[in-house]
Amino acid sequence: MITWVIYDIVSNKTRNKVIRVCKDAGLHRVQKSVFLGDIVENVFDEIQIKIKDIINLNTDSVYVFTMTKKELQMAGLIGQAFDKKYVTNEIIAKFF
Q1: What confidence category does residue 24 fall into, taking pLDDT thresholds of 50, 70 and 90?
Q2: Which of 4, 49, 52, 76 is most buried per CB count within 10 Å?
Q3: pLDDT of residue 74
Q4: What are the structural domains, with CATH classification, of the chain?
Q5: In this structure, are residues 55 and 10 in contact, taking their beta carbons and an 8 Å threshold?
Q6: The pTM is what?
Q7: What is the side-by-side strand order in the sheet with 28-31?
């Protein structure tokens, strides 16, 4: 399932831990605080559990959600939707 993780995390240390969780799950960084990937359902559940244990629930925000490939292709991507510093054409081709 196509999965997004979008976050606003106060602490650099916490943010780095969340980044590691996302990368370990096979997600690709597409913007500074956005990850995207195609994962299985149990990995989706693991990501949420791990992130909940890492972040400060009073100060940090993390969105973890799925969408279909069709929904992603229909999404309005405006301007530089994917940061070229993080995303290769190969990664974009996986989703579009």
Answers
A1: very high
A2: 4
A3: 84
A4: 2-82 (3.30.70.240)
A5: no
A6: 0.87
A7: 28-31, 34-38, 2-8, 61-67
